[in-house]
Amino acid sequence: MGVYPVVDTSKCDGCEECVNNCPVGVFQITNGKSDPYQADSCEGCETCVSVCPNGAITLKEQ
Q: Positive or negative CA dihedral for 50, 15, 35, 41?
């Protein structure tokens, strides 16, 4: 059982910190917001959670 990232798009400003810092390339920007389009690749390192300046990303258990 793993985890996957969830983005609160109301908080996301599309800064690309998650895109630039995720070691496994889970994120891309779609329509100006973070999109965890490769969520199945998430390793649960929480880098995205810590680098998001708006607290828009959380990890959920699968």
A: negative
Please name the residues in contact with 11: beta carbons below 8 A apart, sequence gap of 6 or more: 54, 55, 56
Q: Which domains does the chain have, with CATH numbers?
A: 3-54 (3.30.70.20)
Residue type, 37: Y
The pTM (predicted TM-score) of the whole model is 0.94
Let me know if 42 is exposed, middle or buried by CB neighbors in 10 A (0-12, 13-18, 19+): buried
For residue range 36-46, list pLDDT tens digits in order.
999 999 999 99
Do the bridges between strand 28-30 and strand 57-61 make them parallel or antiparallel, or are there none, so unpaired?
Answer: unpaired
Count of CB atoms situated within 10 Å of the CB of 52: 22
